[in-house]
Amino acid sequence: MPTRSLPFLALSVLLLSACGDSADAPDAQGHTVPTSATQKANKAIAGQLPFADDSDFRQARRGLIASDPKLQVLGPEGELIWDMPGFSFIQGEAPASVHPSLWRQASLNNIHGLFRVTPGVYQLRGYDLSNLTIIEGKTGWILVDPLTTKETAARAMAFARQHLGDKPVRAIIFTHSHIDHFGGVLGAVTSEQARKEGIRIIVPEGFMAEATSENVLAGVAMTRRSMFMYGKRLARSERGHVDTGLGKHPPYGSVSLLPPTEIIGRTGQELDIDGVRFVFQYAPESEAPAELTFYLPEKKAFSGAEVVSRNMHNLYTLRGAKVRDALKWVHYIDEMIDLYRDAEVYFASHHWPIWGRENIGHFLESQRDTYKYIHDQTLRLALQGLTPREIAEELELPETLRNTWSSRGYYGTLKHNSKAVYQHYFGWYDGNPANLDPLPPVQAGERYVDLAGGADSMLEKAREAFAEGEYRWVAEMLNHLVFADPDNDDAKALLAEAYDQLGYQSESGPWRDVYLSGAFELRHGGPKKGFSLATARDMIGYIPMPRFLDAMAARLNGPDAAGKHMNVNLVITDLDETYLLTLNNSVMHYRRLPEPEPEADATLKLTHDLYLKMAIGTAGLRDTLFSGDLDIDGSRLDLLRFFSLFEKPTGDFNIVTP
After folding, report:
1. Which of 186, 410, 496, 571 could join 256 in a cystine, given CB atoms 3.0 to 4.6 angstroms apart?
2. Which residues are bridge partners to 204 per DSSP?
3. How many C-alpha atoms does 403 have within 13 Å on its Cβ side?
């Protein structure tokens, strides 16, 4: 096997696939070898970036107390949800199937264990997608962002106690409303502990609404899309998943939540938490709709939460979310520079810390200016009439930012972030009448295939383009062919090979995973099992009823409901909440009432727990409505017909085929 020389690390070797396949054969999942065009593209990166700079590696290892070489965590059904040894293949120089810059980031994110950041501040890194920070108070611990799942948080806490001693938890800070920063809380403490011991739960204003609404309203589709974004079905190998850029990957285990006891709603707000002085920055609508950062004046240390991180972040995330306001984000980083100018240590919810005022200042300025450049230059080009695709193709960061590792597109990218800025101001329509009402994929695909002279002709043209290394064009052509003829195995095979090469050349972890997941599903089909809310039972119990009813309304099958009219009282007995659900014009509305509407067609009375079981699918609708576990006034059959109009999406829909 020929070696490939990249000046990345001193003693470096190429590894064979983790699945044991030969270097010139597809791996166990069918991913093909990197072509000569891909090898050439990735090799060219070596001379474009400062790979000789090893300061990040020194910082990432600094303060290591202990690591866990056998760090594996099982999920609620005994499945492996976290496996750091599975990433042991990431060592030495980058193989030709991985962008060298992403390989460097993946190598840094492989450095895991318990670290001392500064006296009284510790981090557990590499136990989850995010970091768990422990701050010593006078009588116990203050936890910051207790990871994604109960299982990974429990493992991290056990490791911390093994090396730091067993101290009580006095407070928990959720820096923002994304699930990888609060979902593991019941693995760190129990709800009974929190109640009995008066553990303080401190969150930014708006946290509960944002933490729950996204997951219940759009969570099923987001979770399916996140399987692509994070490479859930990919092997951990040099031709599979290597890293997200932000961390290794999200664990898919049990998630939970505890309600807040204190709210941070303004910048400059101070709290004494177990004898430690905290000064907060309130930063809503930045990286998350509800977010805070904080400073520890006595330690001259600050947490940037996820407002800043060791990569370019997402102004739009590929799993699907509201577009983020780049200017607000810039404002908060600029404010952070003023607020924390005396800081000697920076640490955050992801990646490794930074020490030294000058280093921190450079980092913050480059983060700020990266988002400002994307914002301003996207608008400048849009004002000249360029469309999102044209802007994405033209934009390039200036050299000063381009050569700064923390501004590289490991997670967000310059291309899709510029499109996010465009969308923020102008929406999805680019002004071209041809794009106002385009044909849907299947109809467009059929016409493009016909225009190309048929499937065989289009496939031959795609093979010629593939041989020239024009993988983006191959993907565009064959996507039309696959949607026109999803049983065309030759088209799917070549499209999968093109996706392999696009993935291998991607610096962004999510882009790589999206391409390689597309290739995987073209070869093996979609998932057999969709998303289940059952693993989120400890979180959704805190979701307010109006959010569930909003989600319920969004799942009404409008065509099936045409011509149907019904009013149903829904009484949640143990919450003392009554809602009138009204079906008319193929939409459902709800109103909260002090008492059930006497003229309603039916009244359903049940406990909150039973409602949740119905909502997450652990209690069947028909069996429940005809059981004695609830109280019904009116026709049970009418209620069954009413609730049967609402769909239960499972999140196993196709993405790369019709």
Report:
1. 186
2. 264
3. 11
Rounded to a whole number of angstroms, the distance between the first and last alpha carbons of the chain is 40
Q: How many CB atoms neighbour CB 516 within 10 A? A: 29
CA distance 255 to 260: 16
Task: Indicate the DSSP class of residue 245.
Answer: S
Nearest to 349 by CA among 309, 294, 391: 309
Q: What is the DSSP string of 588-647?
A: EEEEEESS--TT-SEEEEE-HHHHHHHHHTSS-HHHHHTSSSSEEES-HHHHHHHHTTB-
Single-letter amino acid code for the residue at 147: L
What own/partner pairs with CB < 8 Å and gap ≥ 24 does 13-19 have? Answer: 13/92, 13/93, 14/92, 14/93, 14/95, 14/96, 15/89, 15/91, 15/92, 15/95, 15/238, 17/237, 17/238, 17/239, 18/86, 18/89, 18/235, 18/236, 18/237, 18/238, 18/240, 19/235, 19/237
For the whole model, what pTM was predicted?
0.94
Report the candidate in 382, 415, 433 with the shortest Cα–Cα distance to residue 315.
415
88-101: pLDDT as tens digits: 999 999 999 999 99
CA angle 338, 342, 348 (to 5 degrees): 80
Share of the chain above pLDDT 90, in %: 86
642: pLDDT strictly greater than 50: yes
Could you give phi then psi for residue 148, rounded to 5 degrees?
-90, -40
